[in-house]
Amino acid sequence: MTTPFEYALENQDTFLRELTEFLRIPSISAQPQHKADIRKAAEWAAAHCLSLGMTRAEVLETEGHPVVYAEWLGAGSSAPTAILYGHYDVQPAELKDGWHTEPFQPVIMDDKIYGRGTADDKGQVFIHLKAFESVMKTTGTFPVNLKIMLEGEEEVGSIHLRPFIQSHVELLKADVGLVSDSGMIAPGTPTIVYGLRGLVELEIYVTGPDHDLHSGAYGGTVDNPTHAISRIVASLHDAQGRIAVPGFLDDVRVLTPDERESIAHVPFTEAMWKAETNAPAIWGDPDFTLKERTGARPTIEVNGLFGGYTGDGSKTIIPAKATAKITCRLVPNQNPQKVFAAIERHVAAHTPPTVRSKVSFKRGEPGIVVDPNDPAMQVAVEAYQHSYGKAPIFTLEGGSIPAVMMLREALGIPVILMGFGLPDDRLHAPNEKFSLEQFRLGMQTAIEFYRLLPNYKK
Ligand code: BES
Ligand code: MN
Ligand code: MN
In this model, does residue 352 exceed pLDDT 70? Predict the structure, then answer.
């Protein structure tokens, strides 16, 4: 008899052909011209779920891009119910950004699949769809009730997901949440993320003269808004790289000695940092280690800084305005509104009388920690033990997945972050890829996780 994992291995080529179809749909949530592609991807995913033997799959409307909901509830009311969350939207990508191959024409090379969305997150969602298929096709049933919720707005901040979840609590009700949208620390080092950072997005606008001025006529008499915003941005950190905004760090959860100890054992080295970034030297708060700073500490980061003339050649002006687009990563216990207020006060205090400034709040989501001792976590540990031959390590991750917090809030369930990405997957960047070894091990882990989940008692 074929086991589910044997089935998965035997059908890998078919799985990859199907994944390729999914990846070819440029479901870029940030760009209005891709609205139809977003819907196409949602419909594709729903139809695919039905083809696997799920008994219900629908594209449900939200105020923004739709949510795909699918379910198979044949395990009965005495079996646990798991809800898988993932996202079918992707980050923007264009060949000219530095891709070696077309971002939406996936290519398989050296046991890796290259293309936008391969690791983040279509490829990782596929792990679970194919685990479900493999179990269904070989055993005719599935060990747990499975609900699937796939979002189309994760990459733009999940703005409409909270009201969707809140108005569908009954539909989404489950005992445990599962997400494969994060990564492992290194190949061969299975990793469970037990904390994700939150996020505050804001913009600072600085204005000076009410129109662009001739820099020969007025230079030396007018405070240039691009200079003033640079000084404001520079004041957010001290010279060593510590956050210098009063109040920003007030509620930061202090790392326990145990946590610092376990973070110290995470096999992430300065050499790995160097290989990934190729930046000339490490920067950041000297009071914390490199590893602590990548997931366990908050940040303030300018994502875009602009003002004045940026086209070809030159233009001799004093620009009328300048803008900084900023996101802050928050650790658990920090309140997004409070953090925003601290920055707003700080910017006001650092705005000289020669310009005007305004700070606008875009959105915020708190960070989250999942209890590593939850019994469902133990199931995940055993599943990794089975597939990778070793227990996973627990890490705090720097990225954010707003839905994780929302699911826990609305459903009161633990959410397990079983990510199969690797550090060199180039998420959000040109030449994103997903390792097929990770795809296979991911399916093996997922199959085992679902098999063991009925042992889980809440
Ligand atoms: N999958 C990522 C988050 C992630 C990346 C988790 C790496 C763990 C490791 C997700 O798709 C993402 O990019 N999230 C955004 C959220 C934001 C737009 C609210 C992020 O972290 O920037
Ligand atoms: Mn993602
Ligand atoms: Mn992403």
Answer: yes
Task: Tell me the CA–centroid distance for residue 32 and ligand 2, in Å.
Answer: 20
**Contact, 393 vs 266, CB < 8 A?**
yes
Given a contact cutoff of 8 angstroms between Cβ atoms, the answer to whether 139 and 73 are in contact is no
Q: Region of 111 please: left (phi>0), alpha (psi -120 to 50) or beta.
A: left
Contacts 24+ apart (CB under 8 A), 264-271: 264/289, 264/291, 265/393, 266/185, 266/291, 266/393, 266/395, 267/185, 267/186, 267/189, 268/185, 268/186, 268/294, 268/423
pLDDT for the residue numbered 6: 98
pTM: predicted TM-score of the whole model, two decimal places: 0.90
Site to probe by mutation for ligand 1, drawn from 120, 159, 200 as the one with most ligand atoms within 8 Å of Cβ, is: 120
The DSSP call for residue 1 is: -
Pairwise CA distance, residues 35 & 255, whole Å: 42
Nearest by Cα to 328 from 338, 318, 339, 314: 339
**In Å, what is the CA distance from 13 to each residue of 48, 120, 316?**
16, 20, 59
pLDDT at 97: 96
Q: Check 18, 71, 89, 120 and give the catalytic one.
A: 89
Query: 105 — phi, psi (to 5°)?
Result: -125, 85
Assess whether 102 carries a catalytic annotation: no
C-alpha 75 – ligand 2 centre gap (Å): 29
Ligand 1, atom nearest to 399 Cα: 21
Contacts of 82 (CB under 8 A, 6+ apart): 144, 145, 146, 147, 174, 175, 176, 177, 178, 450, 453
Tokens of 287: 């009071």
Active-site residue flag, 154: yes
